[in-house]
Design brief:
The chain is of the alpha/beta class. The chain folds into two domains: 181 residues, 2-Layer Sandwich (Beta Polymerase, domain 2), CATH 3.30.460; 130 residues, Rossmann fold (3-Layer(aba) Sandwich), CATH 3.40.50. Helices cover 47% and strands 15% of the residues. It contains 15 helices and ten strands. It is elongated. The two termini are 37 Å apart.
């Protein structure tokens, strides 16, 4: 028997911390301007109806609706926009199609696919990516439907499970690492306070009596900073490195914010220093670790800490999985029904004048065993409905 089934026209390409090391992830990191261009180019691609691009420290993902032929075009565009060999992309990315896209998106949005299980930042990052696509008029029914339901699902996971009861993220882990480094009072230099990650780190450190927090700012910055943060010009950052005990960089710069040569000249006193590089691509020159007393840790360092944290949240994971499974099923039903509705008028004409008994036999003759079970189960639910 010939099977006629249209799959949900959704696709996703994902490069994340689960498959790709930070050296590879940084190659596919997008600035806001680059993201705008990519969205426009994707939307202009034949076979693409709607698109969202997500680019964070731990992942770059393209979600799009359209025709299957657009998948290879999306691969080529993603590799081409970042000037990376497409074979490297194919080595590290995962692709999803149909309902698998919704399942993956719901897990990402709810923090279950994060380096730190249940982290809070990802929800805001995903919402911002979706809103950016909306501003560029790059979404369609399928993208809107799946993203809006995923946002709703993530809020349920946040409020109904224990995953967010003890809020832990890369930002809070970085702050905790800073606090643990040396027991005495310490000077902390933070680069990137105006970014989301830097701002969260600052909030976690500001106001502590054992920390003097200095944050670099660009000229003409109108951002509001937590009380107690001393602002310094970005150009003067090396003037403060010698006094600093901890240097944290979390910018969106495509270049190093701290280089080995400049840091070597700036360091006068031989004391232990902790460098935390919370950026993708890297902010801090890896050779900084060669300086006497210097300890350099990048974002992948937190995988071990996150793993210990994640094992304590298995109960919350199970609760979240239950919510996601239910919401994914509703999303799949909505998308399948929308896809089928295009053929409904033709179906009505074909079934015109048929009795309920004839309709049931038609369904039986055109369904396999599993499909027939579903039809019969739906009919029995209708019978059991007291209304």
């Amino acid at each position: 028997m010939m099977q006629i089934q249209k799959e949900i026209p959704l696709f996703s390409l994902s490069i994340s911390h689960k498959q790709a090391p930070v050296e590879v992830r940084k190659l596919f990191s997008f600035s806001q301007e680059e993201r705008q261009l990519f969205l426009r180019h994707m939307k202009e691609t034949d076979g693409v109806w709607g698109v969202v691009l997500v680019s964070t420290c731990n992942r770059t993902e393209v979600y799009f609706s359209g025709e299957r032929k657009a998948v290879q075009k999306a691969e080529k565009l993603l590799a081409g926009e970042k000037k990376v060999d497409i074979h490297l992309l194919r080595k590290y990315y995962r692709s999803y199609q149909g309902e698998k896209v919704a399942q993956h998106l719901f897990h990402v949005m709810s923090g279950l696919d994060s380096m730190v299980l249940g982290e809070d930042e990802i929800l805001g990052q995903m919402r911002e990516a979706y809103n950016a696509a909306c501003r560029e008029n790059c979404t369609d029914y399928y993208i809107n439907a799946v993203f809006q339901r995923a946002l709703s699902c993530a809020k349920q996971v946040k409020t109904k499970t224990c995953l967010s009861k003890s809020s832990v993220s890369i930002a809070t882990l970085s702050a905790a690492e800073t606090v643990r480094f040396k027991e005495k009072n310490k000077n902390v230099l933070l680069l990137g306070i105006t970014g989301q990650m830097g701002g969260l780190i600052a909030k976690n450190l500001a106001g502590r009596k054992d920390i003097r927090l200095y944050a670099t700012v660009r000229r003409h910055s109108a951002s509001q900073f937590p009380e107690g943060v001393k602002q310094i010009a970005y150009e003067e950052r090396y003037d403060y490195i010698d006094d600093a005990d901890v240097i944290i960089s979390a910018t969106a710069s495509p270049h190093y914010t701290i280089t080995y040569e400049a840091c070597k000249k700036a360091v006068k006193t031989g004391k232990d220093r902790l460098f935390l590089d919370i950026a993708v691509p890297n902010d801090i020159d890896p050779d900084v670790s060669l300086l006497d007393g210097s300890i350099l840790r990048n974002i992948d360092y937190f995988k071990t800490i996150a793993s210990d944290h994640n094992s304590q949240k298995e109960e919350g994971r199970e609760q979240a999985e239950s919510i996601i499974q239910s919401e994914c099923e509703e999303a799949e039903k909505e998308l399948l029904f929308h896809e089928f509705w295009k053929d409904f008028e033709e179906l009505k004409k074909k079934l015109q004048g048929k009795s309920a008994e004839q309709l049931l036999y038609i369904l039986r003759d055109n369904a396999d065993a599993e499909e027939l079970k579903a039809v019969i189960a739906a009919c029995r639910k209708i019978l059991a409905d007291k209304e």
